[in-house]
C-alpha cells in the first residue's frame, strides 16, 4: 500500500476559498487563528510576515503555509499596526471587484503594490491526523525551491491564471486546483533533505521496516494485530520492533493503529450516513460501546455528536 496516498486521501479538503489581494503600501493585516490551514503566495512585490515575534521577508514567488492556521500578520513594512483580515475581506467583498478579474480585491494606500494569493483549506477529521501532526507550525518555500519543482510551479501558474480570468465555473476550477496545490506543497516538503531529521510519522516512512509495518496496518487495519505478529511480518524481534517503531513514529505500534482506526471512523462519520455501530465494526471494533469509549477519549465527544458538529457549515472569512 502507498501509505502517503492513503494518508492524503483521508485529508480531504471540504472547503477552500481564495482571493488575489492587490495591496498598496502602507498596509498591514492580522490573520487570526482559525480551524483551517492558510497559504499565502506572493505573486508581485514583497511583504513582511510576523509569526510568534519572528519576522520574515517574503519576496515575489515565495510561499508560506500554516498547516495549523496559527495567527500571524502580513504587512508592507515592519512596525505597522495591523488591521483585522476578516474585516478587510468583508469590506473588499462589498466593493466592486476589478473588471475582468475573479476573486481580486484591492486595498491599502497609494504606495508600491504587492499582490498576494491567499487561500484556506478546511479538512475532514483534521484532529489527530498523522500528516498534519507531522507538519511544522510554518512551512516556507522560496521561489528557487518552487521553481525546480515542475509540478508545483506549473500548478501555481495555472492557479494565478484562473484567478485573473472571469470565466464560468471559475470557483470550481480554483477549488480543484487548490486541492492539488495542497498535495504538491506536501510532496515538496517531505522530500526536503532535513524534513525527516526529527522523529515522527514522516521520519518513519524513510525506514524500510517501519514503513512496511505501517503499510500493513493501513492495508488491513481491521485485523486484530499484536506487536509480536506485526514484528514477524517485517522480520524483527518483538522488543526490537516495538522500540524501533516508537523511536521512529513517536507512538507504540498499537497506539498508532488505534489512532488510525479512529481517524478513519471520524472520516466515515463525516462522509457517510452509516450507523455508528456499522462504522465501529468497519474500523475493527468488536462492540459499539468500546468504540464509543475510545472515540470519546480521542475526540472529546461521542461519535454522533462529532458527526453533527463536523457537518455544520463554517464561515472561513476568506
Give the SSE map.
Blueprint: H1 3-10, E1 13-24, E2 28-31, E3 37-44, E4 46-51, E5 54-59, E6 63-66, E7 72-75, E8 83-84, H2 85-94, E9 104-108, E10 113-123, H3 130-134, E11 139-141, H4 143-147, H5 150-164, H6 170-190, H7 201-204, H8 208-219, H9 227-233, H10 238-249, H11 253-271, H12 276-282, H13 288-299, H14 303-310
Parallel strand pairs: 1-9, 2-8
Antiparallel strand pairs: 1-10, 2-7, 3-6, 3-10, 4-5, 4-7, 6-11
Helix pairs in contact: 5-6, 9-10
Structural descriptors:
318 residues, alpha+beta, 6-stranded mixed beta sheet, 5-stranded mixed beta sheet, 46% helix, globular
Written description of the protein model:
The chain has helices at 3-10, 85-94, 130-134, 143-147, 150-164, 170-190, 201-204, 208-219, 227-233, 238-249, 253-271, 276-282, 288-299, 303-310; strands at 13-24, 28-31, 37-44, 46-51, 54-59, 63-66, 72-75, 83-84, 104-108, 113-123, 139-141. It has 318 residues and is an alpha+beta fold. The strands form two sheets. Strands 9-1-10-3-6-11 form a six-stranded mixed beta sheet, with helices on both faces. Strands 5-4-7-2-8 form a five-stranded mixed beta sheet. β4 and β5 form a beta hairpin. α5 packs antiparallel against α6 and α9 (227-233) packs across α10 (238-249). The longest helix has 21 residues, at 170-190. Residues 314-318 have low confidence and may be disordered.
Question: How do you describe this structure in short?
Answer:
It contains 14 helices and 11 strands. The longest helix has 21 residues, at 170-190.
* Overall radius of gyration: 22 Å
Strand content: 15-25%
* Helix residue percentage: 40-55%
CA distance, first residue to last residue: 36 Å
What class, by secondary structure content?
Answer: alpha+beta
Mean pLDDT: 87
What kind of assembly state do the chains in view correspond to? single chain
Helix-strand sequence: HEEEEEEEEHEEHEHHHHHHHHHHH
Q: Unreliable runs, pLDDT <50, ≥5 residues?
A: 314-318
Approximate shape: globular
Main pleated sheet: 6 strands, mixed
Report the total helices: 14
> Care to count the β-strands?
11
Amino acid at each position: 500500500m502507498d501509505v502517503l496516498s492513503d494518508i492524503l486521501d483521508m485529508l480531504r479538503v471540504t472547503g477552500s476559498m481564495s482571493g488575489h489581494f492587490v495591496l498598496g503600501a502602507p498596509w498591514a493585516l492580522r490573520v487570526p487563528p482559525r480551524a483551517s490551514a492558510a497559504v499565502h503566495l506572493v505573486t508581485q512585490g514583497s511583504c513582511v510576515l510576523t509569526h510568534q515575534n519572528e519576522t520574515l521577508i517574503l519576496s515575489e514567488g515565495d510561499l508560506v503555509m500554516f498547516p495549523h492556521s496559527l495567527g500571524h500578520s502580513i504587512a508592507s513594512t515592519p512596525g505597522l499596526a495591523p488591521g483585522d483580515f476578516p474585516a478587510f475581506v468583508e469590506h473588499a467583498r462589498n466593493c466592486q471587484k476589478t473588471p475582468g478579474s475573479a476573486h481580486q480585491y484591492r486595498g491599502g494606500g497609494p504606495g508600491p503594490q504587492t499582490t498576494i494569493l491567499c487561500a484556506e483549506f478546511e479538512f475532514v477529521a483534521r484532529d489527530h491526523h498523522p500528516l498534519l501532526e507531522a507538519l511544522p507550525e510554518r512551512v516556507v518555500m522560496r521561489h528557487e525551491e518552487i521553481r525546480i519543482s515542475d509540478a508545483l510551479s506549473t500548478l501555481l501558474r495555472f492557479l494565478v491564471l484562473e484567478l485573473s480570468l472571469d470565466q464560468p465555473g471559475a470557483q470550481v476550477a480554483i477549488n480543484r486546483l487548490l486541492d492539488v496545490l495542497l498535495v504538491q506543497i506536501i510532496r515538496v516538503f517531505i522530500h526536503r533533505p532535513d524534513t525527516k531529521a526529527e522523529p515522527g510519522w514522516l521520519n518513519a516512512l524513510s525506514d524500510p521496516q517501519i514503513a512496511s509495518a505501517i503499510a500493513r496496518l493501513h492495508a488491513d487495519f481491521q485485523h486484530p494485530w499484536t506487536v509480536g505478529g506485526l514484528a514477524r511480518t517485517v522480520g524483527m524481534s518483538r522488543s526490537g520492533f516495538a522500540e524501533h517503531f516508537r523511536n521512529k513514529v513517536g507512538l507504540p505500534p498499537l497506539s498508532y493503529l488505534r489512532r488510525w482506526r479512529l481517524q478513519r471512523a471520524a472520516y466515515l462519520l463525516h462522509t457517510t450516513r452509516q450507523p455508528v455501530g456499522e462504522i465501529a465494526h468497519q474500523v475493527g471494533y468488536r462492540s459499539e460501546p468500546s468504540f464509543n469509549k475510545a472515540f470519546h477519549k480521542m475526540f472529546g465527544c461521542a461519535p454522533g455528536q462529532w458527526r453533527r458538529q463536523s457537518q455544520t457549515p463554517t464561515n472561513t472569512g476568506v
